[in-house]
Amino acid sequence: MDPPADAAYALFNALEEEQMASAALAPDGDEASRILTLAQIAFGRLRGLLAGIDDELLDRAPAQGEWTLRETLAHAISVERSYRANTQHALARREDEPLKLPPDRRPQPDPADT
């Protein structure tokens, strides 16, 4: 294995171990905690897998008209931010406020996501 691949694999393992340790500290019991634990583990694995991917691969479309990995990840991040903002709005909303999240409270794209 070449040095960059070794470094990426080591980083993947370190991130996976960190996420597993974090997940192990989650409170036992309710279903929400178990779901969050599984999500935390999956997130750590995804971070580890993405750590060693170079820009050329991130920007290569699998086929004509299909999204690149970078575009797919940016879309997933955008959806997660929107979901979080809409959920927070629904929980904090007063009766006199609109059901729909106002445009000025919608999450804005972050240049770091690309």
Describe the structure.
There is one protein chain. The chain is mainly α. It folds into two domains: 1-52; 62-114. Helix content is 62%, strand content 0%. Helix 1 packs antiparallel against helix 2 (31-51). It is flat. It has helices at 3-24, 31-51, 55-58, 69-92.
State the main characteristics.
single chain, 114 residues, mainly alpha, 2 domains, 4 helices
Quickly count the helices.
Answer: 4
The amount of beta strand, in percent, is: under 5%
- Biggest sheet details: none
Low-confidence stretches: none
Number of strands: 0
Note the overall shape. flat
Q: Mean pLDDT, as a whole number?
A: 80
Range of helix content: 55-70%
The span between the termini is 29 Å
Gyration radius from CA atoms, angstroms = 18 Å
Order of helices and strands: HHHH
> Which structural class should the secondary elements be placed in?
mainly alpha
Q: How many distinct folded domains? A: 2
